[in-house]
Amino acid sequence: MDTDPSASTISLTAQQWDGFLASLYERDDRLELREAGQTYPPLETVDAYVMSAHAEALLSGEVEGDLWGTLEDIEETASSDEEAWQRITDFYLSRGCVLIRITGLEEPEEWILSGDLARRLGLPGGAAA
């Protein structure tokens, strides 16, 4: 895991991302870290689709994100997908969120989590806003 603390960006390999998701469980619409020695029902498993419900924004080849809807929500405009994602990223990072960039994939994969959620899940850069 590589972290750029000045930009609150975390780079993970696809294998690290999968391991991170496997280290989580969802109960009552809340994500938490699994505890060693505990058993968790299969319905509490976290995959990319479950994680997408907790992300502030995402750019993913696996999970369909609403890039233009998110841009509209933050009252920004852009002329391309790339510019839209950059504006979304800038908006959320300036508000204490954390960008997770998954490397080594054919398509770009980036997830933005709130700083509070990132901190609770043990991610670097999850400082209070």
UniProtKB/TrEMBL annotation:
Domain of life of the source: Bacteria
Protein name: Uncharacterized protein
Annotated source species: Deinococcus koreensis
Origin organism lineage: Bacteria, Thermotogati, Deinococcota, Deinococci, Deinococcales
